[in-house]
Amino acid sequence: MEVPVSHAQNPLTVEVTLVREDVALLTVEGYLDVDTATELQAHLANQLHHGRRHFLLDLSGVPFMDSSGMNIVLRVYQEVRRLPGSVHVIAPAPAVQRIFDLTGVSLTVPVSRTAEEALALIDAPVERSA
Predict the structure, then answer these.
(1) Distance (Å, rounded) from C-alpha 122 to C-alpha 46?
(2) pLDDT mean for each 10 residues of the chain (130 residues)
(3) pTM reported for the whole predicted model
(4) How far apart are CA 52 and CA 85, in angstroms?
(5) DSSP states along 89-127
(6) How far apart are CA 115 and CA 64, in angstroms?
(7) Which of 1, 9, 23, 92 is deepest in the core (most CB within 10 A)?
(8) Per-residue pLDDT at 124
(9) Element (H, E) at 67
(10) CB neighbours of residue 40 within 10 Å
(11) H-helix or E-strand containing 87?
């Protein structure tokens, strides 16, 4: 007997809050993996389409993330850098922080404890090398 597998076994929820016209806070909860990463990608693409250039990704409610989830974070980071824009990860769960640290992603994508801390980084003057 075949038992259908539902994506609802490990549902992912993404709540989008507009912090400012160009800044979206995406609060992600659930497993960010091969089955759910496209949902986050769709939310990010929609926000890009509507002119958001800075993304705050609150991953405090994500207990597990695989390479599919990490790939989404890296792809949006690369895309918005050209705009220019930015991606900031907020308060990742310990297991997710460990993945970012082991892969070196935390050296590229800023990780902040709070949304306020990430906003301060967005608003900080950019130092340009001569």
Answers:
(1) 21
(2) 48 94 96 93 95 96 94 94 93 94 92 94 66
(3) 0.85
(4) 8
(5) EES--HHHHHHHHHHTHHHHS-EESSHHHHHHHHHSPPP
(6) 21
(7) 92
(8) 78
(9) helix 67-81
(10) 23
(11) strand 86-90
Task: Say how far apart CA 44 and CA 49 lie, in whole Å.
Answer: 9
CA angle 73, 100, 118 (to 5 degrees): 65
Amino acid letter for position 118: A
How far is it, in rounded angstroms, from Cα 84 to Cα 88? 14
Which helix (H) or strand (E) element contains residue 20? strand 13-20
Q: Return the number of other C-beta atoms located less than 10 Å from residue 95's C-beta.
A: 11
Which pLDDT score is estimated for 123?
84
pLDDT attached to residue 2: 47
| CATH number assigned to the domain with residue range 12-122, chosen from the 4 options 3.30.750.24, 3.40.50.1100, 3.20.20.100, 3.40.50.300 | 3.30.750.24
Question: Residue for token digits 């993330």?
Answer: 65
The predicted pLDDT at position 16 comes to 96
